[in-house]
Amino acid sequence: MLRFLSFRSLLLSSFLIVAVVPSAVLIQLRNELGQAATTLRSHQEQAKDWQDANRVSREQSAQFERATRQAQILKDRALANAAVGAWQEIALSQQKLLRSGNPALTRSAESILSIQPQLQALPARAGSQRDRLFRQLDQHLSAQSLQINQQLDQSQREWQSSITEMRRTADRLAWLSLVSALLLALAMTLLISWPLRKLQAKIARMSDGARLQDWRQSGPADLQRLALELAQLDRRLAALEEQKGRFFRQVSHELKTPLAAIHEAAALLREEVLGRLSPQQQEIVLILQNNAQTLRLRVEALLRYDAGQWLSDILTVEVFDLPALIADRLQASRPLLQAKRLGVDVAGAASRVRGDRSKVETILDNLLINAIRHSPAGSALSIRHGRDTGGVWLEVCDQGPGVPTAQRERIFEPFWSGPPPLGEQPGTGLGLAMALGFAQLMRGELTLEQRQTAGACFRLSWPEPENLS
């Protein structure tokens, strides 16, 4: 069912369900309170009618007794009629109590109504019996008043008991509604969060390199649509990686043969097969052979599908000697420096530093190639290094024409290259882009510094935690 609902409709349904439970409880309590109020009002009205009937009966009883005694003595027809009228009032009031449905009041009313026929059956001289019947009438009416008060007290107690029970019921329903609302909220949270966690785990696996996963997803409709889009992205990434692999293999195979030839030719020269070499020539041949070997290792790494350590996005943190690395890279670039008669000034306070040596080496190689390429013949390069609160820094500066202000924002863009030096071919535009990528991978920075003097100055900096990976 969830696959037909979106997140919006599911959340709305959840809120409605959670709101319905306490609302239903409130409606039920309102109905019960209404019923209790109606019952109380009915009992109060009934008790008032009973009390009114008893009060009228007692008032008319005194009138009935007085008129009856006077009529017996005076033989007055008017007094006899008054006695009859008083009794009729008593009878009407007692008829209400007969219809009350209360057994005690019914018996009391029957006892009261039975006295008048007994009085009529007495002879004129039966005064003592008449007094006894009047006393019974008064006693019955007093007992009836007491019964009505007792019945009213009992009704009050019953009403109080029902209110107390309703309060307890309200407490139970309140707790029940709270627990139900929490359970419903928890259930809806699980229904929403469980598919999200599964999708998040798949995305994490995809970012770790897993491809062509099963993206079938349960949950709301919009989450399933997102899973379908991620599945398409997964397929595209897999296709791109396959194309990249084919590209690397093709380029690697095309480069491997001429590199092997260069390496073998350098080996023959070093072994002096064609004649003896001067010490300077032997040094140049050694540099040529070492660089050919380095490039061949990187090409072979491409053939192993991992693009080599120099293209890897995995950091290999180690402690290395930064001045020794700078000296090694300057030695590898010595033929280029000699060709343009460039001097190099190296100074700095950093010695053994922590970081990814291979990536720092690649960045330094690109900065040196860039500086040598744009330096005028006979000028000098400046390499400075040190530590500050942010970590390690390394600067490579030249005395070339520098970078125009309009081009400073594009200098690190891939495949963009500024105007080449006179007599040279344009660059690929990948060196500085790769250097910036490696710097950011180490959580560092590679920036083009502002200078008052001529030339360009690039500054590399990276933090030095215990583990950068």
Task: Report what the structure shows.
This protein is of the alpha+beta class and 469 residues long. Among the domains are: 10-186; 314-462, Heat Shock Protein 90. It has helices at residues 7-74, 77-98, 103-113, 115-121, 127-207, 221-270, 279-303, 322-332, 334-339, 357-374, 431-441, and strands at 317-321, 343-348, 352-356, 380-388, 391-397, 445-448, 457-462. A hairpin with a 2-residue loop joins β4 and β5 (391-397). α1 (7-74) runs antiparallel to α2 and α6 (221-270) runs antiparallel to α7. The longest helix has 81 residues, at 127-207. The model is unreliable at 304-310 (pLDDT under 50).
Comma- or semicolon-separated keywords:
5-stranded mixed beta sheet; 9% strand; two-stranded antiparallel ribbon; single chain; 469 residues; 66% helix; alpha+beta; Heat Shock Protein 90; 7 strands
Quick rundown:
Among the domains are: 10-186; 314-462, 2-Layer Sandwich (Heat Shock Protein 90), CATH 3.30.565.10. The strands form two sheets. A five-stranded mixed sheet has the order 2-4-5-7-6. It has a two-stranded antiparallel sheet with strand order 1-3. The chain has helices at 7-74, 77-98, 103-113, 115-121, 127-207, 221-270, 279-303, 322-332, 334-339, 357-374, 431-441; strands at 317-321, 343-348, 352-356, 380-388, 391-397, 445-448, 457-462.
